[in-house]
Structure formats: structure tokens, C-alpha cells
């Protein structure tokens, strides 16, 4: 996910990261991935958001079943939310309202053209802050009624859900960076995520839209049983634009 829309930086979208000179394929170990990630504006902005939301949750107190409900609900929605954002915001045509207004399609288009350039692979700091704020509004829309219906702490449940969303976005940044490096995950879960995301980039951009979860792909039928079940796309790099 990348909404970096800067066009006046002088950065060639096919070049290495302008600040560090590092491409994602220069990273070969998990330690290198983490050391690089924490220097990026998106990770720093998200870390601040997580600390602030975590502190607010501790201050409010009143823990209970609402916290468990919020965590389970957030985990259950993650795959579908990722799918929707990826399909309708990140893959939005360059002349669409979403791209013209939010700039989401522009940055992601550049990412598909050059998947290992960190400037397009990861969110910008402002983008991360905007996404966390948007997640807060969306989270309030579903968590407040759910907490009220279940007789749970409304403020506490909302803050827990928002905190989970912020942590989820940080996890997204880590996974997205990891699958574009030379590091190969050891666990079955992350191996599957890496394989599917590479297929999304180099097999067919209309499938494997999940990054940290494949539940959205399963639900919306974009997770082929075999990669050969879908044709090799000529527009995986250009998104047809």
C-alpha cells in the first residue's frame, strides 16, 4: 500500500531510495528489514500512534469483554478491508476520483512499475498518519454500536479496536517490505503471504490482493487454488494504464 504522491522531489521512480541508496532487494535478513523499517517515516508515525492509543487505553481502564470483541472483530475484518482498499483505492485508474482526490492510485501505480523501490513500496509519513485517522473514524462507526449492543465499555472498546487497527497497519508495512526483499520467511503463514504477493505482482494483478491476510481473497474469490488457474497478465506491471 503506498499513497506517496510527491512529484516534485526529483526522484526517479526506478531509482534506489533517495535517502539511503537502498533497494528492498538489498535486505537479506529479518534484522536488516527491521533496522531499515524503523528509519522510515511511516513506521515512525505509526509507532507514535500506537504509543498514544495504547497510553489512552491504559488511562481509560474499564477492561472487559468489549476488548476481546474489538480484537476478534478487527482480526476478522482485516483481510476484507485490505482487499477493498487494494482493489478500489490502490488499483484505481489514474483518472478516477479516488486517484485525483486521494492520490492512492498514483503511488501504487509506481510501486507496480518498480516493486523494490522503497519510496513507493512503503507509505509516506503523512500518508500513514492520514490512514490511522481514517481508521479511527471507520472504527468508531462499527465499534461504538457494537460495544453498546453488547453492554461493553464504549470508549474502552473503541480505543482497543483503533489500537488494533494501528498495529495492523504497522504489521502491513513490515509484511509488505519483507515480501519484496531477498529474505525468505520460515513460517508457513508468512511463506504463503510472500508467495501470493509475488504472484500478484508478476502473475496477475487482479488476484492475491491480500497482503497480511488472505481471508478477503478467499471470500471474494481472488485466491486461485493453483497459479495456472488464472492467465499471465500483460498489465501486472502497468495496471493497464
UniProtKB/TrEMBL annotation:
One matching Pfam family: FA_hydroxylase
Entry's Gene Ontology molecular function annotations: iron ion binding; oxidoreductase activity
Transmembrane segments: 33-56, 68-85, 120-142, 154-179
Residues of the Fatty acid hydroxylase domain: 72-222
InterPro entries per record: Fatty_acid_hydroxylase
Keywords, comma-separated and alphabetical: Membrane, Transmembrane, Transmembrane helix
A GO biological-process term: lipid biosynthetic process
Segments for region (Disordered): 1-22
Protein name: Fatty acid hydroxylase family protein
Source organism per UniProt: Ilumatobacter fluminis
Amino acid at each position: 500500500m503506498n499513497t506517496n504522491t510527491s512529484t516534485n522531489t526529483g526522484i526517479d521512480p526506478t531509482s534506489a531510495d533517495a535517502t539511503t541508496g537502498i533497494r528492498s532487494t538489498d535486505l537479506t535478513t529479518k534484522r536488516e528489514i527491521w533496522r531499515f523499517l524503523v528509519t522510515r517515516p511511516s513506521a515512525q508515525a505509526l509507532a507514535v500512534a500506537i504509543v498514544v492509543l495504547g497510553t489512552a487505553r491504559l488511562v481509560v481502564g474499564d477492561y472487559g469483554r468489549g476488548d476481546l470483541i474489538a480484537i476478534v472483530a478487527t482480526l476478522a475484518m482485516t483481510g476484507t478491508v485490505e482487499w477493498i482498499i487494494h482493489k478500489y483505492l490502490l488499483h484505481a485508474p489514474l483518472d478516477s476520483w479516488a486517484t485525483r482526490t486521494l492520490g492512492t492510485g498514483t503511488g501504487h501505480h509506481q510501486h507496480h512499475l518498480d516493486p523494490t523501490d522503497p519510496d513507493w513500496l512503503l507509505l509516506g509519513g503523512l500518508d500513514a498518519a492520514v490512514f490511522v485517522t481514517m481508521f479511527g473514524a471507520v472504527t468508531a462507526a462499527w465499534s461504538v454500536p457494537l460495544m453498546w449492543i453488547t453492554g461493553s465499555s464504549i470508549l474502552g472498546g473503541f480505543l482497543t479496536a483503533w489500537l488494533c487497527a494501528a498495529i495492523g497497519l504497522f504489521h502491513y508495512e513490515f509484511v509488505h517490505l519483507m515480501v519484496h526483499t531477498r529474505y525468505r520467511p520460515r513460517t508457513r503463514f508468512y511463506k504463503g503471504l510472500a508467495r501470493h504477493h509475488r504472484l500478484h505482482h508478476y502473475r496477475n494483478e487482479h488476484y492475491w490482493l491480500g497482503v497480511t491476510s488472505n481471508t478477503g481473497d478467499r471470500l471474494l474469490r481472488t485466491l486461485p487454488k493453483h497459479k495456472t488457474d488464472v492467465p499471465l497478465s500483460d498489465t501486472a506491471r502497468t495496471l493497464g494504464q
